[in-house]
Amino acid sequence: MVTIPTMNVPIFPLNSVVLPRGRIPLQLFEPRYIDMLTRCLKEDRGFVVVLLREGLETGTSAAFYDIGTYVRIIDFQQLDNGLLGITVEGQGKVTVVRTWQQPDGLNVGDVECLLAEEELTVPERFTELPSVLKALFRHPVIRELGMDIDYDDARDVGWRLTELLPLDKQEKQRLVELQDPLERLERLLGLLEALEQN
Fold it and tell me: Of 74, 117, 159, 195, which residue is 20 to 30 A from 18 by alpha carbon distance?
């Protein structure tokens, strides 16, 4: 289990989610986030990605959910558009206990680790879900992230589908907050059937 400092952890509100072992590319251009990146690299620590409840990713008055994921920076490079691109990988889910805002607008907070989810094999009744995930992973943008997927692990399948399926924000957050991998797969199966019917 990753040990996470419970003081002064930077909080990064986004319109998307990342879960343990998941990867997400980010573009940084705001000074507060470039400073955060510099500090994280210098101190060899990560930050917490949370889903925006309301407001904009670039605003300073965003409201966000209090369960998110502690992430580490695994890659960074200057992009063709001049912005700084980073790739982060989820380490473990956390609860944000308290937050405040620094003078530069960066959100910081005290976080507590959630218990790691139980490692379970994907039951027979959910065989459609790994197939859908395999299809999603054929997309070049997703393939480029270089994630290792265990298609037999109920956690992995549920986490990756939560990140990748086109679901509304509240639905994604409900899936993030579940601690039972099979309950998440059950919910995803229902959501997938609803998507297919539309």
Answer: 195
